[in-house]
Amino acid sequence: IERTLSIIKPDATKRNLTGKINAKFEDAGLRIIAQKRIQLTKDQAGEFYAVHKERPFYDELCEFMASAPVVAQVLEGEGAIAKNREVMGATNPADAEAGTIRAEFAESVGENSVHGSDAPDTAADEIAYFFSGLELVG
Ligand code: GTP
Ligand code: MG
């Protein structure tokens, strides 16, 4: 059974959308097996998003991720990585399919409410960035 890292981003935590977003995950058959609300520093956000270091929006992205608390969580289920990305919808909410989290809640391509790992190797690294093995209760 697969696991993926999800982050409910500052735009969503500020608008009190954690419960509504979690309901979307659970309705899709994903189980939240770990979850914590944390305030990232800009440096921690930069470390997490290091793969995007060369992209023009990197600085803006790191500022945004440190602008308010986030909820980091581990989702478990059959094909959890792909299923989570399906429930999230396209990066740009303007392109996101109706009913997806980003279509319903995201404000812009930058402030797009959720993050989800994109492959098994990145999922493993991203889960380990936020959680110890003892915190994953499947
Ligand atoms: P994540 O699940 O957050 O990784 O989203 P993604 O895989 O759909 O998008 P990608 O990995 O390409 O980009 C990572 C994040 O950078 C996005 O979720 C956005 O928050 C941000 N981002 C991407 N493109 C832009 C952009 O053009 N402008 C700004 N400001 N942010 C962007
Ligand atoms: Mg990505």
Report what the structure shows.
The chain is α+β, with helices and mostly antiparallel strands. The chain has seven helices and four strands, in the order E-H-H-E-H-H-E-H-H-E-H. The chain has helices spanning 10-14, 18-27, 42-48, 58-65, 80-88, 101-105, 120-130; strands at residues 2-8, 31-38, 70-77, 114-116. Strands 2-3-1-4 form a four-stranded antiparallel beta sheet. Helix 3 (42-48) crosses helix 4 (58-65). The longest helix is centred in the C-terminal third of the chain and has 11 residues, at 120-130. It is globular and about 35 Å long. The termini are close together. Residues 52, 57, 60-61, 91, 109-110, 112, 115-116, 118 line the site of guanosine-5'-triphosphate. Guanosine-5'-triphosphate binds at residues 52, 57, 60-61, 91, 109-110, 112, 115-116, 118.
